[in-house]
Amino acid sequence: MDFQVWDFPGHLDYFDPAFDVDNIFEEIGALIWVIDAQDEYLEAIMRLNTTILNLQHSYPNINVEVFVHKVDGLSEDYKGDTFRDIIQRVQDELSDHGYENAPVSFYQTSIYDHSIFEAFSKVIQKLIPQLPTLEALLNSLCSTCHIEKAYLFDIMSKIYIATDTSPTDIGSYEICSDYIDVVIDVSEIYGWDRPAENGRTEIQETGNNDAESLITMERKGNNYLYLREINKYLALICLMGDDSPAEKKAVIDYNVGVFQAALKQVFPRAEREVIVPVTSPS
Amino acid sequence: MNTGKRQKQRKVLLMGKSGAGKSSMRSIVFSNYVAKDVRRLGATIDVEHSNIKFMGNLMLNLWDCGGQDGFVENYLTHQRAHVFGSVAVLIFVFDIESREFQADVISYSNIIRALEECSPTAKVFVLIHKMDLVQARLRVQLFEERTEYIRTASEGFRDSVEFFPTSIWDQSLYKAWTQIIYFLIPNARSIEGLLQQLAEVIDARELILYERTTCLMVTHVTRGLETNNPFTDRFERISSILKTHKQSMAKHTGIPAGSANFAEMQIKTGRFMFFITRLTENTNLAASIPPSEQVFNAARVNILLVRPKFAELDIASKPRPGIQQA
Ligand SMILES: Nc1nc2c(ncn2[C@@H]2O[C@H](COP(=O)(O)OP(=O)(O)OP(=O)(O)O)[C@@H](O)[C@H]2O)c(=O)[nH]1
Ligand SMILES: Nc1nc2c(ncn2[C@@H]2O[C@H](COP(=O)(O)OP(=O)(O)O)[C@@H](O)[C@H]2O)c(=O)[nH]1
Ligand SMILES: [Mg+2]
């Protein structure tokens, strides 16, 4: 089989952008194609080319995102060669038809590391016209609060829709993404619908409605983590530096509040609807 | 019971056929392995010992006994008294996929007889392991069939032996081990009494006391509406969540998993507040409380104040004055 229908195996299951990232971008969509890099891909590329040409004809604005998948099984050299070969073949075909500027991008992905999340994050980020604004907001948050790295995560998919512009590394992404799991799992266990406790409903009003979480590590000098739900879909997750959180907590809370308010102006409307089909014909 | 500062050593035998999954379990529960790491384990040669300190005065002395025929033969003959003497608990692991179930049961019987002879008061737990390999709809039935058959081969332990279905790929592992640990804790009742008082003072919905390295629950108290929490498997889920988090922190920060401990974790939402903090040398306390900053702050202060009481429990279990509100 040349193409795969992406089915998000096992633990990546909840990662279906068709319903998760609804509110993130405007009416633009992207088409994600998955090519099995471990298999014969010539025919797959022919089909991909046909599709891109069709799209160029009727929907020239749709981004075509090609995931060269399962690269984990290939040697470093072979991986690079395969990747370049695929890009070359697609681009030759497009320029033959005069579409050399078609919005087609390529990513190397595998489910055995976080590359697939990274690729998805980039795909999504392209569809967010406000990205530069978000980055600027995150940068300023980081510098005021001495935050090492801040991500704006889509909670359910664990794709990040923006991060500050300091260099990203796999480790910090994975810590933050695992941390979301902890918060989601605990929230599921204790956030069940309990009937109103009679006569004691007044305590409900004090807790803030957006979930907030903090982990401090035992050893001084180690990073600690901060999470704040921004709205139903988004969470801000920060990897903090060395200073004691107790002293900084108020400062962080304040600045995150400012960030949250700014974000509301960036995304004035709460609900948006865009579908990103993840397909590939078999 | 146990007065004085003497440590209580409890010998635990881990036995079963070679490849049944004994060392896999041990490495995950006690040594911070993740499930996929266990493929690297080789067969255990003879016996591997490990000591785990729980709640101060409980020292778990775990004997992981290699299951190849030659070794077992040796345990039953030359080393009989050495291996089967003064055993508190025998954990026997059956591989659900084994093609020689009859032979496994015969070997189990031999071991049971040796145990009855040398440590008649021991407790036996049987784990029917690798349940993940069985189709979900067949699991309950198969487990019950095996259980019944093994029980009849349990000699003098027939009425007291307890069975658990387990797999290293889900939280069933934690469920079984939590029960085993609970059985071994000498002063579980007094700990629970103290926890119950604490829960009332701080108005907690639930308190969970767990051991820091293994993330296994020692005990818990649940109050009021929380007793209706639909997630009845939440204790083993929490063990598993915390263990996974510990491993994630270790992996990405380069701190050894053994010391990737957090000082505190807090989660605050509109529906509940939750925090975990250290209670004694070897235990952490997880508390779920109503969503109120006031309750939250008071709870943290009160827990800080009761620490010495629990530390004392670590050492001796004599009567103590109750907990007063801060
Ligand atoms: N599917 C599945 N495989 C498991 C499970 N637990 C262990 N295994 C596999 O079983 C194999 C043998 O595990 P070990 O833990 O080394 O077996 P052992 O009982 O210690 O064997 P001896 O040391 O020779 O007595 C390992 O390769 C594990 O991957 C489980 O819950 N499910
Ligand atoms: N080596 C490798 N195998 C993968 C990767 N992603 C999926 N697979 C394997 O490819 C097979 C088919 O995957 P599946 O998602 O069911 O394909 P579909 O037919 O396109 O839905 C499964 O056995 C997966 O384990 C990857 O990144 N690397
Ligand atoms: Mg072994």
UniProtKB/TrEMBL annotation, chain A:
Per the UniProt entry, what species is this protein from, by scientific name? Trematosphaeria pertusa
Note the PANTHER family from the entry. Answer: GH16429P, RAS-RELATED GTP BINDING RAG/GTR YEAST
Q: Which InterPro entries match?
A: Gtr1_RagA, P-loop_NTPase
Which residue ranges run through the membrane?
Answer: none
Biological process according to GO = cellular response to starvation; negative regulation of autophagy; positive regulation of TORC1 signaling
- What does this protein do, in the record's words? GTPase involved in activation of the TORC1 signaling pathway, which promotes growth and represses autophagy in nutrient-rich conditions.
The subunit structure is: Component of the GSE complex.
What is one term from the GO cellular component aspect held by the record? Gtr1-Gtr2 GTPase complex
Which domain of life does this protein belong to? Eukaryota
Task: From the Swiss-Prot or TrEMBL record, give the protein name.
Answer: GTP-binding protein
The organism's taxonomy opens as: Eukaryota, Fungi, Dikarya, Ascomycota, Pezizomycotina
Which key words tag this protein in UniProt? GTP-binding, Nucleotide-binding
| Family, per entry | Belongs to the GTR/RAG GTP-binding protein family.
Identify a single GO molecular function assigned to this protein. GTPase activity
